[in-house]
Amino acid sequence: MEPNLEFVPYQQVLFWYHICLQILRQYPPLSLSSLPPFCLSLLWNYKLNLTMDPKFESVAMEICKSTITEIKECSEEERGKGYLVSCLVDHRGNITEYQCHQYITKMTSIVFSDYRLICGFMDKCREDINTLRCGSINVGEKDIHSQGEVIACLEKALVREAEQQDQAHPIREECKKSIMRVAELSSDDFHLDRFLYFSCREDRERFCENTQAGEGKVYKCLFSHKFEEAMSEKCREALTTRQKLITQDYKVSYSLTKACKADLRKHRCNLDTNMPRAREARLSYLLLCLESAVHRGGWRRESVCVYMCMRGYKCYTLTVECVYMCMRGDKCHTLTVECLQTLIQSADPGSDYRIDRALNEACESVIQTACKHIRSGDPMILSCLMEHLYTEKMVEDCERRLLELQYFISRDWKLDPILYKKCQGDAARLCHTHGWNETSELMPPGAVFSCLYRHAYRTEEQGRRLSRDCKVEVQRILHQRALDVKLDPDLQKRCLTDLGKWLYDKTGKEQRRNSSMGSQSRGGKNREGTLECLQDHLEDLLSGCGEVVGNLTELQSEDIHIEALLIRACQPVIQSHCHDVSDNQVDTGDVMECLVQNKHQKEMNSKCTVGVTHFQLIQMKDFRFSYKFKMACKEDVLKLCPNIKKKVDVVICLSTTVRNDTLQDVKEQRVSLKCRKQLRVEELEMSEDIRLEPELYDVCKTDIGRLCSNVVFGNAQMMECLKERKKQLSQQCHQRVFKLQEGEMLDPELDYQLMRVCKQMIKRFCTDVDAKNMLQCLKQNKNSELMDPKCKQMITKRQITQNTDYRLNPILRKACKADIPKFCQPILNKASDDSELEGQVIGCLKLKYADQRLSPDCEDQIRVILQESALDYRLDPQLQIHCAEEIPGLCAEEAVAQEQTGQVEECLKANLLKIKHDLCKKEVLNMLKESKADVFVDPVLHTACALDLKHQCAAVTPGRGRQMSCLLESLQDKRVRLQPECKKRLQDRMDMWSYAAKVAPAEGFSDLAMQVMTSPSKNYILFIISLGVIVLFLVGLLCGRITKRVTRELKDR
Hints:
Helix content: 55-70%
Radius of gyration: 46 Å
Largest sheet: none
Number of helices: 62
Low-confidence stretches: 1-8, 24-32, 137-145, 273-281, 298-344, 435-443, 505-527
Oligomer: single chain
Strand content: under 5%
Mean pLDDT: 75
Distance between the termini: 164 Å
């Protein structure tokens, strides 16, 4: 049986006290905290009686005379009420007198150290303490002699009663006043709230080490860190209780009392103690009084807004115009209007929009058209209205009223009944809200929702995730708040200065960029344009604003549905090409990746294209803004590319690492496989728009404006324009373009235009071909009847580019790595690292091919180039340069032919005698010389003699002029009958070679020997030469014996 502790005589207390002591003796493992509640209460009553016993005070006055004199605070305490001993216990660390120190040390175990501070409170709340059993002794890490636990217990009971919780004990009125008075006295210095002080002692050191005590500064600091993960649970509970007391009496908040004191007096808002309202409405009453004063004064909203902006308050009319006015220093009227939030909380229009008459009237037509499927009064009506914000169905007045209401809902999520219902348990479990009844006056705006958001996008490995229903609601809220900057408290608070700086010019007029989405609110600025502006100036933002904009952009990359206007604009493309990923409950960057890949589909409209491109441009500022890239490569970036932030730099760093590892044939690549796959995706996306490569774009901006002003960005069209006008580019731009082309030739998959134009041909001819050999495969199938003309034209462009410089042809470069320095070193000595050699090296190798001096691998590659350039003169840069006048003059019709099949080359050969320029004539003679070396490099002759080669020279090995010699011998052999066309072409070639020999005689012995060996009369020439040598030898022999005859006399000596 437990005793009734409401009125217990001292003797009975002593009796039960001995019973509790016997329990402790019988069960030694038990601690005080393990005792039954009635025992703890009895021990507390016993200790309280000892504290008030005058006998202990008499002994202290006799033993501690000098100490009492030294401690001024204790010497002034009233005698006979137990205050003196309590004071000495509280100052026991300062006692130096030996006997006094021993006595007080013994007393510390039986008296309350802070009893004197709350003595009046104890007198008025004794009955409630016993009834609620708040007088327990806690032996935890707190001071066991403090009454903080008792006060905290009563404060929690008071809060339960105010919240009308079940089985809440009604506290007597005089005790309530005492509780609030104690809370008020401790509002200045948090040390005086003993329970909170001991609960938050470590948290204060962790979060508010540099915050000075006094004026409620420590409270404010702790409130701001309440939802930090490092905040201890006990401190969080103590802070919550403190906040709930503030809602019942504003004086419990020192800063609020100080800020409102003059206004309350001025507008006669002193609290009427006889008012019939519940106690929790007191703060609301005072704030409503202030609001009424505002309306009586007739102040303009803009002026009120500016003042609040300057004072750091929040206002639903707070816009960028207001910020700009603040920055100019406009003077405004005084106002304290946190009451607006309280007013909204009291009405709670989130549960039934009809409570807000202005909203109901303004939005009636929208509700009837857009939300008629939802029953009247349903909370989902507000969500429906938000979904149609900035659409054709929305009207201006409804839009304005809706944003005003949503401003407050975004700052107090209790006003969203659906979110509150679905997420109440998650908020208590993950955000330590315990019922989610915190006031919002002293809590960071949106603190609870910020906590829910942090857990909404956690993976299973990270743990502590939201429930499915709550996550859906959190995503709904994120989608709604993305519609307008005013609905994001953190963004608006941290970016006021930057919004004023970047969104307005010096005259205060708006300097908005053309909205990428082409939609903005009729009455204000939607968040799309505002956030876009901040993202564009990300590097220039203040640190706080830059952080929140960066976090929002990072969130967008993970869930693009947050950008509602972008999703609306891209809906046709999503339905046609991205429906499989858009239907997923969790978007991990798949939708945006799909939109990028289908950016040039016919369903893509201009608004969606601009929106997607802008997001791509913003992603370049930080690799974290590409969710899939970040998740795939974050470990590789930390390991291989630390301290690099820009995405383009990270891509270059990782791709360089991959290339080096590949070239060195390392056993294990340093970049992980999943990162390499995503890296390929990023490289392909960057190749689509020159703006996605900032360094290239910056150096070529002037050239773009000068040469490609009519070309639109995207689809790699701007890059193609620069390539086609490469000779006209500035030096820096030309160097960058050359480096880009070098990379594309190494990896043709990065050539966006080639891959786009030849997409179907790649599927047809090169399905199983490695990406690095894609261009080579297309070149081999270029002349197929099934080849698409546009793709064929693109292949020719790339061949022309490759033939301008051997460095742009990786296969040739590898095959001729020994031949190039051996035969063409003078050309290399004059070359620069980043400009084309205009085909000089390839021309050098062609001559050596005719001389049959190249290595087999190099010879094979040069033969291919000779075959290709023989069909299309554009593939021979040197011929184009030196015969720039002759080609249009002598071969105009052939040059403009759509299909090049060697007509221009044949024309130049036929008109060799008419060519006046020596360099052009030399190039044509070189062509003749090359064709003489191998019939395969003369496509016209090869086509004409194809049957004869098959019949007469089938056994002859191709190469080194052998088959050409076979044809010439067949021409001389009267027994062989060649095809008429072949015979005619061969005779023409012989005439040309004969003329070439006269015009361009052999330059040296080696050249002469090569001409003889490749001559069709080689055997005859060799016979004549041999015969001449023999005759010369015989003549010399005979002449020698005649001139050197010796007489017999000389021999006999």
